[in-house]
Amino acid sequence: VGLLKPLCDKSPDDLGMANVLAKLYREMQNYEDAKLVYERFLTNADPLLRYEATLLYGDLYRSMGLFQDALGLYKDAATKEPARRDDAVARMADVYFEQDDMADAEGLYRKMYDKDQKHDVPVARRLVEVLVNERKFPEANELLTSLLKEHPGDVNGQILRGYMLLKQQAGAKAIEAFNEVAKAHPDNADVLYYRALAQYSIQGDLD
Fold first, then answer.
1. Dihedral sign for Cα atoms in the order 77, 79, 85, 89
2. Could you give the CA distance from residue 72 to residue 58 in angstroms, rounded to a whole number?
C-alpha cells in the first residue's frame, strides 16, 4: 500500500491501479479506505470511468456481504450502461440468484437472453438453472433443448440436463445422464458431484 498509493495519487484517472489499491485495502479489512478509492471516481468527468468505478464499488460491497448496497450501486450503473454492455444487469442478476431471489433473477437473465438473437451461452445456462429452481420444468427443458441443439458439446449444458432430472426426483435417470457426460469428461468435478447427489437421492448414502 505504501508503494502503490503515491503512484495512484500521481495517476488519478488510472482506475486499474486504483482497483488494485482498493483490493489491498480490502484484504487488510480497511474497508473505509477501499470505499474512498472508488468514491473519488464517481465524480470523474469520464462517464465510462464513472460507470466502471460504480461496478467495482458494488463488487466491494458484494465481497463484504452487503448485498443491498451492492444492488443499489449496480442499479445506478445500469442507468448509464454503455451500448452493448450489460455488466451491471448481469451482476444484479447474479446477486439475486445468490440470494435465492429466483423471480427477480429470472427477469434479468431473461432480459439479457432476449436482447441478443445469438443468445449468450452462460446466460442461457443460468436462465435454465433459475427455471429449474422455480420448478418451471417444461420451459426449462425447452430452453435447454434449444441450447444443446446449437451447442451439443456444451458440457455444462449437459450437466444441467441431469440436474433438471435430479430436481424432478428422477434420480435413476439423472445418474444415466451424468454417466453419459462422464464418459467424455471423467474428471469433471461438477459431473462427479451431481452424480453423487443423484446416487444419494436413491440410496441415501454417498458410497
1. positive
2. 8
Q: Which DSSP state fits 82? A: P
Helix (H/G/I), strand (E/B), else coil: 92? helix
Quote the CA–CA distance of 96 and 175 in Å, as a whole number: 30
Q: b/e string for 51-90 if b means 16 or more Cβ within 10 A? A: bbbbbbbbbbbbeeeebeebbebbebbbeeeeeeebbbbb
Q: On the CB side of 28, how many CA atoms lie within 13 Å of its CA?
A: 13
Cα angle value 80/84/86 (rounded, 5°) = 60
- At position 57, the amino acid (one-letter code) is Y
All cell numbers assigned to 123: 446466460
For residue range 114-165, list pLDDT tens digits in order.
987 778 899 999 999 999 999 999 999 999 999 999 999 999 999 999 999 9
H, E, C per residue of 45-111: CCHHHHHHHHHHHHHHHHHCCCHHHHHHHHHHHHCCCCCCCCHHHHHHHHHHHHCCCHHHHHHHHHH
Check pLDDT > 60 for residue 205.
Answer: no
C-alpha cell at position 95: 446477486
DSSP symbol at 119:
-
pTM for this structure? 0.88
